[in-house]
């Protein structure tokens, strides 16, 4: 069974986001071992300098890498990534299983994104959209797409 980890940086979230994520996490138990790791973003002033942002992203990178399972297939979720259909997104899991990966880790950065060197170290970059979403909402959307992907791979009707 594939291990799937969703790593994201975020603050306290509204209960309805948590409830939605919990529902998808419960559904995913049928298909994979699913873990969610919400990390605390670095504090930045309201109008940070470029250097402050780069320093914060570097510190966040270290936290993220500590949370990534060893040997995992890593996917940076970022606006400059490739936009995929749900079927192509499901292909990530199929390709991982076919290529000997037992762990897949999806990474959502903080409000300033992800450290560029971290994105370069990831095996893939995926974008949900060119739009910007609240991190809690992006996490819910990714939970749903992961669930949808497994339904697609199993030939179940959820995705239709």
Number of domains: 1
How many whole angstroms does the radius of gyration measure? 15 Å
How many helix segments? 5
* Overall mean pLDDT: 94
Q: Report the principal-axis shape.
A: globular
Distance between the termini: 24 Å
Ranges where pLDDT stays below 50 over 5 or more residues in a row are none
**Topology, number of strands:** 5
Proportion of residues in β-strands: 15-25%
**SSE pattern:** EHEHEHEHEH
The CATH architecture: 3-Layer(aba) Sandwich
Q: Reading side by side through the largest sheet, how are the strands ordered? A: 2-1-4-3-5
| Secondary-structure content class | alpha/beta
CATH superfamily: SPOUT methyltransferase, trefoil knot domain
Briefly, what CATH class? Alpha Beta
Characterise this structure.
There is one protein chain. The protein is of the alpha/beta class and about 160 residues long. Helices cover about 45% and strands about 20% of the residues. The protein has five helices and five strands, in the order βαβαβαβαβα. The chain has a five-stranded parallel β-sheet with strand order 2-1-4-3-5, with helices on both faces. Strand 1 (about 5-10), helix 1 (about 15-30) and strand 2 form a beta-alpha-beta unit. Helix 1 packs parallel to helix 5 and helix 3 (about 85-100) packs across helix 5.
Short description:
The chain is of the alpha/beta class and about 160 residues long. It is built from five helices and five strands.
What order do the helices and strands come in, and which of them pair?
Layout: E1 3-9, H1 15-28, E2 33-39, H2 50-67, E3 73-83, H3 86-98, E4 103-108, H4 116-121, E5 124-127, H5 135-153
Parallel strand pairs: 1-2, 1-4, 3-4, 3-5
């Amino acid at each position: 069974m594939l291990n799937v980890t969703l790593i994201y940086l975020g603050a306290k979230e509204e209960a309805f986001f948590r409830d939605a994520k919990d529902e998808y996490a419960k559904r995913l138990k049928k298909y994979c071992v699913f873990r969610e790791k919400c990390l605390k973003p670095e504090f930045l002033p309201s109008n940070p300098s470029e250097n402050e942002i780069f320093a914060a992203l570097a510190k966040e990178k270290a936290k993220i890498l500590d949370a990534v399972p060893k040997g995992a297939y890593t996917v940076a979720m970022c606006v400059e990534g490739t936009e995929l259909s749900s079927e192509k997104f499901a292909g990530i899991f199929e390709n991982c299983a076919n290529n000997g990966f037992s762990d897949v880790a999806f990474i959502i950065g903080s409000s300033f994104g992800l450290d560029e060197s971290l994105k370069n170290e990831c095996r893939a970059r995926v974008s949900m959209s060119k739009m910007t979403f609240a991190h809690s909402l992006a996490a819910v959307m990714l939970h749903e797409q992961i669930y949808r992907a497994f339904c697609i791979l199993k030939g179940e009707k959820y995705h239709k």
